[in-house]
Amino acid sequence: MSGAGVYSQELKHQEDQLALQYLPAVKAMSFRLKERLPSSIDYLDLCAIGTEELVKLARRYDEVQNDSFWGYAKTRVYGAMLDYLRSLDLVSRSSRRLIKEIDIQIEHYMAEYDEEPSNAKLSEIMGIEEEKINEARLASDIYTILPLDDQLGNEFAAGTLDQMEQDELVDIIKDVLIGFDEREQMIIQLYYFEELTLKEISEIVNITESRISQIHKSVIRRIKAAVEG
Question: Measured between alpha carbons, how far is 125 from 106 in angstroms, rounded to an integer?
Fold first, then answer.
């Protein structure tokens, strides 16, 4: 083998070793994300997506430009997993309307009975097949994991968010959150910035996971209304 070939093989070996070094971190990230997703999403799929991205990043990593490989790779690996989730959730406009209607019915039901209705109960109330209710709620659960700009963009005319300055959007979000009490603001902080699961947040603020989910969705609806207005 020529000198160039030996060097190339050794370089590839070093790159693969770099990826292997951080594989446990990818597995931990996959597991943590899986905890916040519906049971139908497979942890192994998330891990495979993350690992594939990790190997790609290791093979183009330049330590001269970035002194920390994981610092360079972490957000990109997580982004690849989010892209995978986006690819699973191709929701039609009619399905988005159904999700919105379901959320409204859930709020009404919880206000009256102080518990979240089952999919069978929603099917009975709304006169819609239980399978369609289940599919719509699954899509809704996936969306709650995605960044706010993904969630806000789903029902807007094309380019609405692009035309806004980031600072303007942040100000709108702050104004909306002021309308919620301190505990509800804490829920949003724990969910989006601390990335805790609904179960973990429930243990901290001592309210049900269903109620936390509804608070989150209420915040998103108010932000959408504020942006559109």
Answer: 10
User: Hey, what CATH class is 3-88 in?
Assistant: mainly alpha
Tokens 């603020």 sit at which residue?
205
The correct CATH number of 148-229 out of 1.20.140.160, 3.30.43.10, 3.40.50.12780, 3.60.20.10 is 1.20.140.160
| Distance between CA atoms of residues 102 and 137, nearest Å | 8
Count CB-CB contacts under 10 A for residue 213.
21
pLDDT in tens, 111-129: 888 788 889 999 999 999 9
Q: For the chain, what percent of residues have pLDDT higher than 70? A: 79
The whole-model pTM stands at: 0.61
3-state helix, strand, coil in the chain (%, to 5): 75, 0, 25
Q: How confident is the model at residue 209 (pLDDT cuts 50, 70, 90)?
A: confident
Q: Select the more confidently predicted residue: 28 or 99.
A: 28
- What are the angstrom distances between the C-alpha of 180 and each of 98, 111, 175, 219? 26, 17, 10, 9
